[in-house]
Amino acid sequence: MExxxxxxxxxxxxxxxxxxxxxxxxxxxxxxxxIDDAGIDIILVGDSLGMVVLGYDSTLPVTMADMIRHTxxxxxxxxxxxxxxxxxxxxxxxxxxxVENAAxxxxxxxxxAVKLEGGTESLEAxxxxxxxxxxxxxxxxxxxxxxxxxxxxxxQGKTAEAAKVIIEDxxxxxxxxxxxxxxxxxxxxxxxxxTKELKIPTIGIGAGVDCDGQVLxxxxxxxxxxxxxxxxxxxxxxxxxxxxxxxxxxxKEVESGKFPxxxxxxxxxxxxxKKV
Length: 276
Ligand code: KIV
Known about the structure:
about 280 residues; alpha/beta; TIM Barrel; 8-stranded parallel barrel; 12 helices; binds 3-methyl-2-oxobutanoic acid
């Protein structure tokens, strides 16, 4: 059956009908094709790119140029999923910068929407982006671009006071016009309250089953990035050991002359070879 391209409206409708929303990250063409073919609703080119692909210790060094380059590759591999570009650190410090950079995701990488991190502190940027006609996803809770301020990768909203701030921020982002919000690393019960109180869908990562949808970093989910595995990650496959096994067999076979065989080799007719 021919699948239809996912739209923002279709994503919002899933909340109304109680259908769960699926979202994964991608950073290149090959992975985007696999995820898109599997029928995932939303592909996010996350700034987690910095850690799982570029090898930085945090997402802070990621630039707009990095994001655009990788989002263009993902775009080429994405047919049906809604494609979201993640605005990197410092790319939405002012309303002007926010609109300019969001527009680059839309024009240069043909995104369907963009995402930014933060609540009250990002509200002006959020309003400017939505005001310019660009669909926006919010991101609350553990926001990796504020890792210094948050004091590390910790669960957020564990006190009543902190939880209330996240709930209020979610309402503010909804009022600013976000079409959906990612909730990262917050208690299940708080994510449940936000999900009930908002009309727009919530997408959880380490926020429990009551969110309207779930997102994981694909490289974590397929066991490709195993420098550390957060508690909220489920590894559905473990690719790193499989790849390592393949690489070791290749090395052994090249060194022993077992690869390539006739099957992987091109021939030339004897009469042509004689002329050479
Ligand atoms: O950068 C990213 O991959 C993200 C997801 C974890 C939501 O923001």
